[in-house]
Write a structure and sequence with these properties.
Blueprint (H helix, E strand, L loop, with lengths): L3 H8 L24 H10 L7 H21 L3 E4 L2 E4 L9 H12 L23 H23 L26
Antiparallel strand pairs: 1-2
């Protein structure tokens, strides 16, 4: 019987030791986090500084503004000092299905022209490898996540550039030879 914290640490690359993530789980009964616009308004509201109304408008348009109004009316989000934040907690989901569902939406924001400015990065590599290499690659992804989290968690790095970072690797077959 592993406790939930231990299971989450194994499934998601999140630093639960520091207890920085406080899940606002009471919102599940009130909103549809599977809705793209609701999801992204909530994501923006989880930023340490919160988000600005103008960012929701620029990023999500009229539908995002409608969701914002709804979430403010339901008191899930609050406005304070010109910023919009979750009323409780600083995160809202670790639902694996929701994360997978949102990957194409995140990738829709990728712009090739920003690569020339060194403002983004994208790679896809596919190759037949052995189990040792598979484990080494997973460690690299986990290490990169920790490094990125460390940069993002520093107060001096807070700002008004909404960004995302994601990493994903997996094998293309279900069973592997453990040799």
């Amino acid at each position: 019987n592993q406790n939930i914290k231990e299971v989450l640490k194994q499934v998601f690359a999140v630093d639960y030791e520091e207890n920085r993530k406080i899940i606002a789980s009471e919102i599940y009964e009130k909103v549809d986090i599977n809705d793209k616009y609701t999801y992204f308004v909530l994501v923006l509201a989880t930023y340490d500084l919160g988000t600005k109304h103008e960012f929701i408008q620029k990023i999500l348009g009229e539908r995002g503004e409608n969701v914002l109004k709804e979430l403010l009316d339901q008191k899930i989000l609050v406005k304070k000092d010109g910023r919009i934040k979750l009323r409780k907690g600083n995160d809202f989901t670790y639902d694996f299905k929701v994360m997978i569902q949102r990957i194409p939406d995140y990738l829709g924001y990728y712009r090739q022209e920003r690569a020339l400015k060194k403002e983004n990065f994208l790679h896809v590599i596919s190759e037949g490898i052995n189990i040792t290499a598979l484990h080494e690659i997973q460690k690299i992804h986990a290490s990169a996540y920790k490094q990125i989290s460390k940069i993002i968690s520093k107060k001096e790095n807070r700002g008004d550039i909404p960004m995302f970072s994601m990493s994903c690797m997996d094998r293309l077959i279900e069973s592997v030879d453990k040799k």
